[in-house]
Write a structure and sequence with these properties.
4-stranded antiparallel beta sheet; 6 helices; single chain; alpha+beta; DNA-binding
Length: about 270
DNA sequence: AGACGTACCTGACCGC
DNA sequence: TGCGGTCAGGTACGTC
């Protein structure tokens, strides 16, 4: 569930349960994920959780000892909280809380990571230093994107997925936003006109906000049902729909799938110019 | 600097 | 039923 809206949803879901709560014990069940677990993970034992926020797709757990626990979910990571913890395969980090609940990081593919950093130096941390701006911030606008793209020849889809330009836009949202903005994903970034950039910025913001709303409901579904997130099945217009007809479109071949930067891109060649 | 390819890892699914 | 191939929501790093 590692899209920006899901990370946002995870933070919101955990907040009430963990704020002002103490960490009784934190332990990792293996030496590493994408990077080694912090050697001093135990040093957060007995600290109090003072904040839980999101930066890009990172969960940031602020602690009263001046440290922040950084968690990234990678492709397959899940961060959940439970009252009666039953160990599962791929539970890599388990945090017991003073309220009797347990926070669990489960990540089959292990593309996620956990790090511990000084809260005061977060912005300069290796993981954050190079990050672009947040897509939902006011600073992410047509002018900003124009400046960033004016000398770039890379495909527009790869550009909006580039975390140095703007964070949080993953493969699905890149496809969906380009479809909404009627822009062909293969066009060179520096050929996108200003009115198109305007539509693209608006589409990214709209789709992310929509997904954050849906993320909340899909999380509730998740608890009840089979763990499938609703958003992907019900709300995508092109992602995962190769060969299907897109809305109100009479193109013969339907939605196309191509590969860009090793990832699948879905789009309508007729609507997206 | 920018463009591009590759590596990291498990699991689900499909065709034979 | 098993096996090999392919694909999956992300990111860092090396090379040209």
């Amino acid at each position: 569930m590692p899209e920006l809206p899901e990370v946002e949803t995870v933070c919101n879901g955990l907040r009430n349960d963990i704020l002002k709560v103490k960490i009784v014990s934190a332990k990792n069940n293996r030496p590493n994920l994408r990077i080694p677990f912090p050697r001093n993970l135990k040093s957060i034992n007995d600290s109090q959780i003072t904040s839980i926020t999101r930066r890009a797709k990172y969960v940031l757990m602020g602690l009263d000892i001046g440290k922040t626990l950084i968690i990234h979910l990678g492709m397959s990571g899940k961060l959940t909280i439970t009252k009666n913890y039953q160990p599962q395969k791929h539970d890599h980090m388990v945090i017991e809380l003073s309220n009797g609940k347990t926070v669990v990081l489960n990540d089959a593919r292990r593309f996620g990571l956990v790090a511990l950093a000084d809260s005061s130096k977060l912005e300069n941390h290796k993981l954050f230093k190079h990050l672009g701006i947040e897509p939902l911030d006011k600073e992410f606008n047509t002018q900003y994107l124009f400046e960033k793209l004016k000398n770039r020849k890379i495909a527009i889809k790869l550009a909006i997925m580039d975390q140095k330009i703007v964070v949080g836009v993953g493969n699905i949202y890149a496809c969906e936003a380009l479809y909404a903005a009627k822009i062909n994903p293969t066009r060179a970034a520096n050929t996108i006109k200003n009115d198109e950039l305007k539509k693209l910025v608006a589409a990214i913001k709209k789709i992310l906000k929509q997904a954050i709303k849906a993320g909340g409901s899909s999380l509730r579904d998740y608890v009840q049902a089979d763990g499938t997130l609703g958003y992907f099945q019900t709300m995508t217009k092109v992602y995962g729909r190769e060969g299907e007809k897109c809305e109100k479109c009479n193109c013969k071949s339907g939605i196309k799938r191509i590969t860009q930067g090793g990832r699948s891109t879905f789009y309508c060649a007729k609507k997206q110019k």
